[in-house]
Amino acid sequence: MSDILLGILNVALWIFVIAIGLFGAYMALAFTLLVCLGIYAALGNIVHELYIRRKMRLAGRFIPWKKAIGLIENPPGTLIVESPTVGWNITRTWWTPDNVLAQAPVLPLDTPESEPMDLARHPFIEWCHKNYTDTETGSARLIAVYNGKRTAEKLAKRVPELERIDLWTAVLFLKEKDLAYDENSDVE
Description:
The chain contains 8 helices and 4 strands. α1 runs antiparallel to α2. Strands 3-2-1-4 form a 4-stranded mixed beta sheet, sandwiched between helices. It has about 190 residues and is α+β, with helices and mostly antiparallel strands.
Protein backbone atom coordinates (compact mmCIF):
# COMPACT_ATOMS: atom_id res chain seq x y z
CA MET A 1 0.00 0.00 0.00
CA SER A 2 2.86 2.39 0.77
CA ASP A 3 4.28 1.77 -2.72
CA ILE A 4 0.97 2.86 -4.20
CA LEU A 5 0.92 6.02 -2.10
CA LEU A 6 4.52 6.82 -3.05
CA GLY A 7 3.62 6.31 -6.70
CA ILE A 8 0.65 8.66 -6.39
CA LEU A 9 2.82 11.26 -4.66
CA ASN A 10 5.45 10.93 -7.39
CA VAL A 11 2.83 11.44 -10.10
CA ALA A 12 1.37 14.37 -8.15
CA LEU A 13 4.79 16.02 -7.90
CA TRP A 14 5.35 15.76 -11.64
CA ILE A 15 1.87 17.05 -12.38
CA PHE A 16 2.51 19.97 -10.02
CA VAL A 17 5.85 20.84 -11.65
CA ILE A 18 4.35 20.72 -15.14
CA ALA A 19 1.25 22.65 -14.06
CA ILE A 20 3.34 25.47 -12.50
CA GLY A 21 4.82 26.14 -15.91
CA LEU A 22 1.39 26.12 -17.54
CA PHE A 23 -0.90 27.78 -14.98
CA GLY A 24 1.04 29.41 -12.16
CA ALA A 25 1.52 28.23 -8.57
CA TYR A 26 -2.03 28.52 -7.16
CA MET A 27 -3.73 26.98 -10.15
CA ALA A 28 -1.07 24.26 -10.25
CA LEU A 29 -1.74 23.39 -6.61
CA ALA A 30 -5.50 23.25 -7.18
CA PHE A 31 -5.08 21.20 -10.36
CA THR A 32 -2.71 18.76 -8.64
CA LEU A 33 -5.08 18.30 -5.69
CA LEU A 34 -7.99 17.58 -8.01
CA VAL A 35 -5.99 15.05 -10.02
CA CYS A 36 -4.84 13.32 -6.82
CA LEU A 37 -8.39 13.24 -5.50
CA GLY A 38 -9.55 11.65 -8.77
CA ILE A 39 -6.80 9.02 -8.62
CA TYR A 40 -7.65 8.29 -4.98
CA ALA A 41 -11.37 7.90 -5.77
CA ALA A 42 -10.71 5.62 -8.76
CA LEU A 43 -8.33 3.43 -6.74
CA GLY A 44 -10.88 3.29 -3.95
CA ASN A 45 -13.51 1.99 -6.38
CA ILE A 46 -11.15 -0.64 -7.78
CA VAL A 47 -10.13 -1.83 -4.30
CA HIS A 48 -13.79 -2.01 -3.22
CA GLU A 49 -14.74 -4.09 -6.27
CA LEU A 50 -11.84 -6.46 -5.61
CA TYR A 51 -13.03 -6.70 -2.00
CA ILE A 52 -16.53 -7.66 -3.20
CA ARG A 53 -15.05 -10.33 -5.48
CA ARG A 54 -12.92 -11.74 -2.64
CA LYS A 55 -15.87 -11.72 -0.25
CA MET A 56 -17.99 -13.64 -2.76
CA ARG A 57 -15.16 -16.09 -3.43
CA LEU A 58 -14.85 -16.82 0.30
CA ALA A 59 -18.63 -17.27 0.53
CA GLY A 60 -18.60 -19.71 -2.41
CA ARG A 61 -20.56 -17.28 -4.59
CA PHE A 62 -17.89 -16.43 -7.18
CA ILE A 63 -17.65 -18.21 -10.52
CA PRO A 64 -14.47 -17.79 -12.61
CA TRP A 65 -15.13 -16.93 -16.26
CA LYS A 66 -14.25 -20.38 -17.66
CA LYS A 67 -16.50 -22.22 -15.18
CA ALA A 68 -19.29 -19.70 -15.73
CA ILE A 69 -19.63 -20.62 -19.40
CA GLY A 70 -20.16 -24.30 -18.57
CA LEU A 71 -22.64 -23.58 -15.78
CA ILE A 72 -24.67 -21.06 -17.74
CA GLU A 73 -25.13 -23.15 -20.88
CA ASN A 74 -27.25 -25.78 -19.17
CA PRO A 75 -29.70 -24.56 -17.77
CA PRO A 76 -29.36 -20.97 -18.90
CA GLY A 77 -30.89 -19.21 -15.86
CA THR A 78 -30.71 -15.42 -15.52
CA LEU A 79 -27.86 -12.93 -15.78
CA ILE A 80 -28.20 -9.86 -13.58
CA VAL A 81 -26.11 -6.83 -14.52
CA GLU A 82 -26.01 -4.64 -11.43
CA SER A 83 -25.04 -0.96 -11.37
CA PRO A 84 -24.27 -0.28 -7.69
CA THR A 85 -22.96 3.29 -8.10
CA VAL A 86 -24.18 6.60 -9.41
CA GLY A 87 -21.96 8.10 -12.08
CA TRP A 88 -18.97 5.73 -11.95
CA ASN A 89 -20.21 3.27 -14.60
CA ILE A 90 -19.26 0.31 -12.41
CA THR A 91 -21.22 -2.85 -13.16
CA ARG A 92 -21.21 -6.36 -11.73
CA THR A 93 -22.44 -9.49 -13.46
CA TRP A 94 -24.29 -12.06 -11.39
CA TRP A 95 -25.81 -15.38 -12.46
CA THR A 96 -28.54 -17.49 -10.95
CA PRO A 97 -30.10 -20.70 -12.28
CA ASP A 98 -33.50 -19.24 -11.31
CA ASN A 99 -35.90 -17.64 -13.74
CA VAL A 100 -35.93 -14.33 -11.86
CA LEU A 101 -38.76 -12.71 -13.81
CA ALA A 102 -41.04 -15.71 -13.25
CA GLN A 103 -40.42 -15.61 -9.48
CA ALA A 104 -40.58 -11.83 -9.08
CA PRO A 105 -43.55 -10.49 -7.12
CA VAL A 106 -43.64 -7.52 -9.52
CA LEU A 107 -42.04 -7.04 -12.95
CA PRO A 108 -39.31 -4.42 -13.50
CA LEU A 109 -39.97 -1.14 -15.27
CA ASP A 110 -39.59 -1.52 -19.03
CA THR A 111 -38.49 2.00 -19.91
CA PRO A 112 -34.78 2.88 -19.65
CA GLU A 113 -35.76 6.56 -19.37
CA SER A 114 -37.45 6.02 -16.00
CA GLU A 115 -37.01 8.76 -13.44
CA PRO A 116 -34.66 7.98 -10.52
CA MET A 117 -37.51 8.46 -8.05
CA ASP A 118 -39.63 5.87 -9.88
CA LEU A 119 -36.72 3.42 -9.77
CA ALA A 120 -36.01 4.11 -6.11
CA ARG A 121 -39.57 3.28 -5.17
CA HIS A 122 -39.94 0.30 -7.47
CA PRO A 123 -40.24 -2.92 -5.43
CA PHE A 124 -38.56 -5.12 -8.07
CA ILE A 125 -35.16 -3.48 -7.54
CA GLU A 126 -35.27 -3.97 -3.78
CA TRP A 127 -36.58 -7.54 -4.09
CA CYS A 128 -33.99 -8.53 -6.69
CA HIS A 129 -31.14 -6.97 -4.72
CA LYS A 130 -32.19 -8.61 -1.45
CA ASN A 131 -32.72 -12.05 -2.99
CA TYR A 132 -29.94 -12.16 -5.56
CA THR A 133 -27.22 -9.47 -5.58
CA ASP A 134 -26.85 -8.46 -1.93
CA THR A 135 -23.49 -9.66 -0.62
CA GLU A 136 -25.07 -10.83 2.66
CA THR A 137 -28.57 -12.09 1.79
CA GLY A 138 -28.43 -12.75 -1.98
CA SER A 139 -28.08 -16.11 -3.68
CA ALA A 140 -26.79 -15.21 -7.15
CA ARG A 141 -23.19 -16.01 -8.01
CA LEU A 142 -20.79 -13.27 -9.03
CA ILE A 143 -19.04 -13.60 -12.39
CA ALA A 144 -17.41 -10.20 -12.91
CA VAL A 145 -16.85 -6.92 -11.08
CA TYR A 146 -16.04 -3.39 -12.23
CA ASN A 147 -16.99 -3.89 -15.89
CA GLY A 148 -19.59 -6.61 -15.64
CA LYS A 149 -21.63 -5.23 -18.54
CA ARG A 150 -18.94 -6.30 -21.02
CA THR A 151 -18.83 -9.80 -19.52
CA ALA A 152 -22.62 -10.05 -19.77
CA GLU A 153 -22.50 -9.09 -23.45
CA LYS A 154 -19.90 -11.79 -24.15
CA LEU A 155 -21.97 -14.40 -22.31
CA ALA A 156 -25.14 -13.36 -24.16
CA LYS A 157 -23.39 -13.96 -27.49
CA ARG A 158 -22.40 -17.46 -26.43
CA VAL A 159 -25.77 -18.31 -24.86
CA PRO A 160 -28.47 -16.31 -26.71
CA GLU A 161 -31.38 -17.83 -24.72
CA LEU A 162 -29.89 -16.47 -21.48
CA GLU A 163 -32.24 -13.97 -19.86
CA ARG A 164 -30.65 -10.68 -18.78
CA ILE A 165 -31.85 -8.14 -16.23
CA ASP A 166 -30.23 -4.72 -15.82
CA LEU A 167 -30.52 -3.63 -12.21
CA TRP A 168 -29.64 -0.14 -10.96
CA THR A 169 -29.22 -0.73 -7.23
CA ALA A 170 -27.48 2.59 -6.58
CA VAL A 171 -30.89 4.13 -5.96
CA LEU A 172 -31.38 1.87 -2.94
CA PHE A 173 -28.60 3.68 -1.10
CA LEU A 174 -29.60 7.22 -1.97
CA LYS A 175 -31.70 9.23 0.41
CA GLU A 176 -35.00 10.59 -0.84
CA LYS A 177 -33.69 14.18 -0.61
CA ASP A 178 -30.88 13.24 -3.05
CA LEU A 179 -33.42 12.08 -5.61
CA ALA A 180 -35.94 14.87 -5.16
CA TYR A 181 -36.26 17.45 -7.89
CA ASP A 182 -36.32 21.03 -6.64
CA GLU A 183 -38.48 23.20 -8.88
CA ASN A 184 -37.06 26.36 -7.31
CA SER A 185 -33.48 25.41 -8.17
CA ASP A 186 -31.42 27.79 -10.30
CA VAL A 187 -29.83 24.89 -12.16
CA GLU A 188 -31.47 24.10 -15.49
